[in-house]
Amino acid sequence: MLRALRQHLLPSIALTAVVAVVVGLAYPIVVWGIGQVAFKNQANGSLLYRDGKVVGSALIGQSFTSKTGTPLPQYFQSRPSGTGTYAYNSTDSAASNYGPSDPRLVGFIPGFNTVGLNGEPSATNPFATKADPYCVPLTKSTGKPVISPEPGEKYEKTKTGSYVCDPTTVPERAMAYRKLNGLAPDAKVPVDAVTTSASGLDAGISIANADLQAPRVAKARHLPLRTVLALVRKYTIGSTWGFLGTPYVNVLELNLALENMRR
Amino acid sequence: MSGSSWAEIVFFLALLAVSTPLLGNYMAKVYSGGHAPGDRFFLPIERFTYRICRIDPDREQRWRSYLMSLLVYTLVGGLLTYLILRVQAHLPADPNHFPGVPSGLSFNTTISFMTNTNWQNYAGENTMSQLSQMFGLVWHQFISAAVGMALAAAFIRALIRRRQTTIGTFWVDTVRSCTRILIPLAFIFAIILMSQGAIQSFGADTHLSMLAAQTTHSTGVKTLTQTLPRGPVASMAPIEALGDNGGGYFDANFANALENPNGLTNILVLWMLCMIPFAFAWTFGKMIKSMRQAAVVLSAMAILFTISILIVAPLEARGNVKLNYAGVSQSITSTNPGGNLEGKDIRLGTTGSALNAAAITATSTGGVNSAEESYTPIGGAVPLFNMMLGEVIPGGTGTGLYGMLIFVLIGVFIGSLMVGRTPMYLGKQITARDMKLAAIYILVLPATVLVLASISILVPSTASSISTTGPHGLTEIVYAFTSAAHNNGSAFAGFDGNTNWYNFSLALCMWIGRYFEIIPALALAGSLVRKRTYAVTAGTLRTDKPLFAVMLMGIVIILVGLTYFPALALGPLAEHFAGHFGL
C-alpha cells in the first residue's frame, strides 16, 4: 500500500502542481504579455471607438434597432440573432439550434410539417393567413411559437380574428425584409438576411444583402446611393487569400463610418 | 459548390499532407527513447520535473502499473478542478464576480474535461471565472491529450517489443508529450491566433451601449447594451484544438469571432485538430519500422475522413430546400455566399463550417464553429456517424491510433479466419484472449450509448430537455449520448443537458467511454508485449497491402454502422426522406 502510494500518488500530486503552474498560469500570462506588446489592439478585442468612447468590437455584431426593437432605416441591419435574452447579447453567444424542418425555422409548410388543430397530421396549414401561408402561431399560455399543435390549445389572435404569426420564422423575416427595403413581394432575399448565425454575434452580412439595403439607407440619410455603395465596398472584408472563408460586409464598421460622415 | 470552396478543402488536406510526415517523424523520435531534436533545451526541463516530482524516468512499468499511475493522476487533477469550480467566487481572477458553479454542473464539467470530452452544459462566458477557465479547465486540456498520446506510444511499444513485460513509463510519456509537442505547438498557434484577433485580456468585461443607442440617445436600454467578454481566450483555443478537446472559452466555441476571428484562423484550427492524430499513424510506421503497415492504417483513416467532408460540404452549400418556399436565395454568387446559413457565421461560410463539422467529429474534438442541429438532415448525420465509427478516422490524440489498431486486430482475426490462416499481426499471434479484449473495446460504447439513450426516451420527466419533436428530437438524444461516450463533446445544442438526470447520465457515459476503453486497450498492450514474433510466411494474411486497407474500412463501417443503424434510420434518415430533402 505504502509502495503504491509512493509510486502513484506522490508523483501525481507533484506533477499536477507543476503542470498546473506551467500551463494554467505561466502559459496564458506569457501569451498575454506578448499580446499586450505586439498585438495590443487584437489581443484586447479589436475595440472600435467614437468620440473616445467604446462603441463595440469589430468582430462582434450589434443590433441597429430602436428602443422597442424596430429596425432603424438609417442603419444597415445585421443578421437576425439567437443569443440569450435579447439579440446580440455578447455574454450569451448562441445559435437558434432549430432543426432544418423545424416549424420555428421554416414555418408550417403544407404537406410537410403541418398538423391540424386536432393534433393529427394535416395536408393544409390551419393557421395560414392571407399574408403568411406558412404562419406559425404563438400559444396563449406561454407566448412561444407552437411546434406541434395539441387539441384544445389556444393561440394569440389579432383584433380582426386572424392568427398572430411568430415573426422569427424565415418566411416572416423574408416578408419583413422586403417591406423594410421596399422590395417586390416576390423578390428573392439573400439567405444570410433571414437566418441566425452560429454565434448569434455575426459581425457580417453578405454583399448582396448590403446592396439591397443600400437604397433605403441612402434615402434615410439623404446621401447619394453611390456614396453609400462606395462605403459598402470599403468595409467589405475579402476572404483570406481569396478562398479561406467568405467575403462579408462588416456592419458595425460600415454604420460607424456613415455616422461619422454626418459631422 | 464554388471553386473557392473546393480550393479551401484541397488546401486543408494539403496542410495535413505536409504536417503528417514532419510531425510524425518528430513524434517517433520523442517516443522512441533515444536522442530527439531539442534535447539540449527540453532534457534539462524534463529532468528537473522528474526530480521534483520524485519520478524515476528509467523505471519502466507493466500495464497494470501504467494504468494505476494514469488513473491516480487524472483523479488528482479531477479533484483539483472540481474544487476550483465550486469555490471560484473566493479565488482570484474572477473579475465578473461569478458565483461558484453548482455541484451537479461542476461534477459533469470535471468528468467532461478529465475524459477529453469537453461536453459543456454551461456557457463559459457567463459561468466560469477566468481562473476556472485557464487553470481549472486548460490543465485538463493539456493532460487528457497528453495521456492519450502516452497510451498510443505504449500501445506501439507493445507491438514492437518481444517477450517483455513493460510498456514504458507513464510519467515520462505524459511529460514528454506536453513539453515537446503540446506546449510548443500551442504557444506558437496562440500567438498567431492572437495576431488575427483572438482575445487575450484579463480584467472585467467591457460594458458599452451599442452604436444605435449612442446616436439615438437611448443609452441604458438593456437590449441595446453589450458586454464584451474578456479573458484568456487565445491561449485556450490552440490546446482546445490541438488536444482534440473542443471545450471553448465561449458557449459558441469556434463560432465566436473573439476565439476564431476569420477564415485563416478557421483553417489553422482545423489543421491543429487533425494534425496530431494523423501524424500518429506516421509515428506508428516509423516506430515499427514499416511504413507500408502505417500506410494501410493512414489511408483507411484519410479515405473515410475525406468521404465525410465530401458528403457534408456540398449538402450544406446547396442549402435547406425548405427555405425555397419563402423566396430565399440560397444559390452561390460572387456577392451571396448562399447555402444553408442557419447556424453558420458568414465569415466562415458553409464550407469552413462543413469542414469543421466533419473534422471535429472525425477527431474527438467537438469544438463547433456552427450549429450542427441546423445542418441538413444528412449533413448533420455525417458528424454523428463519424463519432459512431469509434473516433478512429483519425480519432483523438493518440486514442485514435490505438482505437484503429484494435480495429486492425479484429480485421486480422476475421480476415485470417475467412481464409483459414493463423491470425497474426506484425508477427504476433492474435489469440482468443486478445479478441475478447478487443470485443469489449468495441462493444462498450454502443451498449452504453444505446442503453442510456433508450432509458432517456422512456423516462417521461426527461422529455423537456428535447427542443423539438419527431425524428429530429430522437437525433438530439442519440447525438448527446454518442458524443459523450465517444468523448467528443459536440452537440445538437438545442438539447438541454443541464438537468440532474443528464448531468449524471452524460457524465457516466463519458467516464465509461474513457476508462472502459483505456483498460481493455492497456490490457491488450500488456498481452501483446509478452508475445514472441514469428516470421511472416506465405501462409500469413498480409496486412500491408491495399486490400487490407479496404478490409479495415469495411470492418470499421460494418461493425459500428450496423450497431447504430436502427437509431440512424429512425433519426436523420427518417427526417431526410420523410421531409423530401432530396439528394
Describe, in plain words, how this protein is organized in 3D:
The complex is a heterodimer of chains A (263) and B (583). Chain A is mainly alpha-helical and 263 residues long. Chain A is built from 7 helices and 6 strands; from the N terminus they run ααββααββααββα. Chain A folds into 3 domains: 2-43; 45-95 and 196-263, no CATH class; 98-174, no CATH class. In chain A, a hairpin with a 2-residue loop joins strand 1 and strand 2. With 583 residues, chain B is mainly α. Chain B has one domain (3-207, 226-578). Chain B is 62% helix and 3% strand. The radius of gyration of chain B is 24 Å and the shape is globular. The mean pLDDT of chain B is 93. The chains are: A mainly alpha (263), B mainly alpha (583). Chains A and B meet through helix 1, strand 2, helix 4, strand 3 and strand 4 of A and helix 1, helix 3, helix 6, helix 7 and strand 1 of B. Strand 3 of chain A pairs parallel with strand 5 (328-329) of chain B.
The helix fraction of chain A, in percent, is 25-40%
Flag low-confidence runs of chain B. Answer: none
Q: Tally the helices of chain B: what do you get? A: 18
Largest sheet of chain B, in brief, is: 2 strands, antiparallel
Biggest sheet strand order of chain B reads 1-4
Fraction of residues in β-strands of chain A: 5-15%
Structural class of chain B comes to: mainly alpha
What is the subunit organization of this protein? heterodimer
Overall radius of gyration of chain A: 25 Å
Report the count of strand segments of chain B. 7
Largest interface: A-B, 122 and 137 residues
